[in-house]
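User: two proteins, same treatment. go.

Assistant:
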Amino acid sequence: MNATVAQSLDMADAAHIVLNTIRRPVIMVDADGFITFANA
């Protein structure tokens, strides 16, 4: 596995942890494609 794939998997794991902690996640994507998390 190369470093880029490993980094992507780490980011996916971090996002999964964040979404599991928020009971009702709202996921917003801005015009640049960045994801923002907020509680509903």
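Protein 2:
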Amino acid sequence: MKKFMYAALIGVSSIGILTACGGQDEAQSTDRKGEITAAKEANDSTAVQHEEPNENTVCAFCNMKVYTKEEEMGKFTAKLVKADGETLFFDDIGCMLNYERDMEVKNNKKYVRDYKTYDWVEMNEATVVKADIQTPMKYGFAFFKDKTEAESYVKENTNLHAALSNWEQVEKMALERYNMKKMKQDADGNDGHTHGNNHMN
């Protein structure tokens, strides 16, 4: 009889221990789920909320029309987000680079459109392609989020002399345009900033 009662007591104790362990595991699992959910919410809250140009938006550098995502030429639109959160739009990549140069603004985030999807891509993360294509300011650069897409475009458009390029080449062309504009303004006796002037080819 004593042996039976002892065995029963051990059984009850074991059940209690197992129940406690199960409860602890469940609590830890709940905590982990809570941490994952909190991290996801934090990531969602810090996701970039991209502003878009509208039909009345003009380039912050040259005052020409900025094309929207719904328009074919909108694939060449660029934008700059200043440190204070202000967003400026540009009709072509060179205008954005020359605005930044002209106004000496720093700590900006710069974006270009993916040539295929028209989605915004951080400038330095985009693959650059140079081709004989019509862009708003005749720079002739297209940008791709995916390098393989850029390589495919180059292979499929040899008739456009498409070739992989880089940001140094984009910057070089923009600077050449900028210097030409400054020389013309100096000759005309205009010492002001270049932004907001006429279309610069």
